Amino acid sequence: xxxxxxxxxxxxxxxxVLVVPLTTNxxxxxxxxxxxxHLWLAWPIAVAAAGAAAVLEVRRRQEAAAHPRPGSEGxxxxxxxxxxxxxxxxxxxxAEAQTRVLHRPQPLQVSWSSTGRPVTASAAAVLGEGAVxxxxxxxxxxxxxxxxxxxxxxxxxxRLVLLGAPGAGKTVLAILLTLGLLHHRCAxxxxxxxxxxxxxxxxxxxxxxxxxxxxxxxxxxxxxxxxIFGPQAASRLVTDGHIVPxxxxxxxxPAELHAAAIDALDHTPPGSPLVITCRSQEYEAAVAAxxxxxxxxxxxxxxxxxxxxxxxxxxxxxxxxxxxxTPVLAHLRAAPGGPLAQALSSPLMAALARVVYAPPTADPAxxxxxxxxxxxxxxxxxxxxxxxxxxxxxxxxxxxxxxPSSELRRYPPELARRWLAFLATKMERHATRExxxxxxxxxxxxxxxxxxxxxxELLTGAVAGIGVALGPxxxxxxxxxxxxxxxxxxxxxxxxxxxxxNLQIRGRIRLFGxxxxxxxxxxxxxxxxxxxxxxxxxxxxxxxxxxxxxxMKTAGTAGLSVGIAFAAMMxxxxxxxxxxxxxxxxxxxxxxxxxxxxxVVESLxxxxxxGLAARRYGFxxxxxxVWALTAGLGGGFALGVAGRLAGRFQTGLAASTWxxxxxxxxxxxxxxxxxxxxxxxxxxxxxxxxLRQAGAxxxxxxxxxxxxxxxxxxxGADEESGG
Length: 723
Known about the structure:
The protein is α/β, with parallel strands linked by helices. It is built from 27 helices and nine strands.
């Protein structure tokens, strides 16, 4: 039997919340005198009843949506979600490959083969008993950057572990594998490869599939759009096998979690395809510590780059003054096992050398100075230190899809290095490889964060106070708004992720009905806080200018009115209808738009509705300055407490990651620790190859570059403090 439609649920809700209380109050003359003063209770009772019914209906529908019938509309929406996600992932990593210049000049030819380390399951487990016929065979796989996708698709279980030394090219190969699998999917179908950095996964607290689902929602928030992609689209994409997780950087999670991570990966459902990259020594140590190998997974290892490949890479593509490399290349051929050849056998170091010695005035022959570069570590340290100054010598052209702008500027190399070193140091202290702009407040001290939260809520309260002024007047309205903003700001927490706004109205009316339930609950929470404050004030002998009962009635009515504005913002704060490529700039612009909409729709409109409610249904209350302070402090504090209990729920500018980011950036810029135009600086560093972009977050080009900057910055600070 088919359940009631969404329209039926919303209609019942509206009838219960609006018609019943309004009718009861309008017909107040027909009820006994002793009951009339309590008719206002019909509003909260109706809201509670309708809210409970709506919650039960939503739960029933979610359970039904979790098991769609074959060939149903739900499955069609899921296929649409997979197709849109594939297109977005292809655009995302094609652009990143172009920015990283992976195909220009001639790609550095890197080879890989089955590892000889004791970290691999048996050949029968990887290839299947039928493939080996019970014979004791050693698994032998071999290939290069051009055929990694083809070789992966030949694996029966589609499970691959890619090992390599630091800077061996694991991330680059993961990008090329992702693009190769997407190209294969266009012709033959199949799951969507999604490349994710593993640095934020904690296997002790979160299952792999749950983490992948969360990352999908964070990077591609449109997947939450129920109207377009159906309920729980991200979860169903993962659990139904529509996703191939390409997990980059197992070694980037804390070392003590490596063994637990491998064990968690091994417990993923049989037949679930996945790709993992990790440093060779760290993976071998984790397998030895945990005693677990990833069953059914082939394990291959990147090989050091040979002198022939290094020569072709360093001189290909019209490098200015390529003959400057002649003595270096001759030395490499003469001493293929020397410190210089060992260092340049790493693709990372070869790429850094190409950048460092790109200017015609730079002479790579200095690398032959055995007094300075007596071992591999000395060569690599020099290239890491010289990379950033060299990257900032000349200005890079913008990407092809970006219009040239007069705002692009040159950054002094030393100043750029200082800013990057500051970021690297803070990232090291927070044990992260990801630089997310919406988490910039982590860098500032705790006291400053509290001040930022209070300032944002005070601004919100001021805007709301302008609306409240429509009823009791400007002075009373501003007092109530600022008091509410102050009390809410004391408990404010930064949101965990940027917001989004969908201004499309058509086809989303029923969604507003569902959001109206939550909005009215929030409004009633604020009204209950104000009512509690009124009761507390009355107990202290403070005159409310009309009696406690009138004050509480006004608080409840105003809270319900404010809930409509909250519901409208929740309705608008839903994902777009299309999946877009994640980027830091786009997410910042979207959240800035959300903040502007929030101020108008949520803060100003809530104030207007509260002011109108107090004016129309004042219940004989003489709203004065004391009333305003009491209502504001109580209502704001209630919202703050609800936000703490409800998992970072916030209202106003405290819910704006752009607001937190902007004030944190201003504080850091005033101290000279970061530039004023931070996002432009990060985008410029990305185009120069200093940073790389993974979704909406930045990372340093390589973990070794971040570690080097942080170590040098810490050493410099220690020297200054010691001097």
